[in-house]
Design brief:
Layout: E1 17-19, E2 25-27, E3 35-41, H1 46-62, E4 66-72, H2 79-89, E5 94-96, H3 101-106, E6 110-111, E7 113-117, E8 123-127, H4 143-152, E9 167-168
Length: 175
């Protein structure tokens, strides 16, 4: 995997199909005509948990205009763990990426690592939810909500790419 070259913005996002936690397959193309957030996620990561809480609140505000596709790509998280966390956090759709194929396709590095697609499936934002860092504990800029708000009124996000932060995505070890 080439981690130095992320998926380019302003192009059609890479297509994928993954099973949800009930085993039903979901395809990215089925979410066209709506803004989509792809959230590479972990059941155990506190950064993902914080992001989930903020996203749930925002999803209620945005209504049916925005879909959240939570992608569980960590190799060390069981289906039971995923189901429990998804239920507790009231996540609408959690997809299993057990072999990290979609994480590799998107060059996802952390949980959370967020990607925003416009209604035509064009990648318009990728990176962090906000600008919190180890030394800066309070957000002064919320990148993902700003990107969504821009798209909701037909504009491109002012900031289209940031560096994601959080827990390292756990991959299968190379043998």
């Amino acid at each position: 995997m080439d981690t130095l070259n992320p998926v380019p913005n302003d192009r059609l996002a890479p297509e994928f199909t993954l099973p949800d936690l009930e085993g039903h397959h979901r395809s990215l193309k089925d979410f066209r005509n709506r803004i989509v957030i792809i959230n590479f996620w972990s059941a155990e990561c506190p950064w993902s948990q914080r992001c989930d809480a903020e996203l749930r609140s925002l999803l209620d505000e945005w209504g049916k205009q925005v879909d959240l596709l939570t992608v569980a790509s960590n190799a060390d998280e069981s289906i039971e763990m995923l189901k429990q966390a998804a239920t507790e956090r009231k996540l609408p759709i959690v997809l299993q990426d057990a072999e990290q194929t979609v994480a590799d396709l998107y060059h996802a590095q952390t949980t959370p690592h967020l990607f925003v697609l416009d209604r035509d499936g064009i990648l318009r934002y990728q990176g962090a939810f906000d600008n919190i860092t180890f030394r800066q504990r309070e957000a002064t800029v919320k990148y993902l909500p700003a990107a969504i708000e821009a798209l909701l009124v037909g504009n491109k996000p002012e900031i289209a790419q940031t560096t994601p932060y959080g827990c390292a995505l756990v991959r299968h070890s190379a043998e």
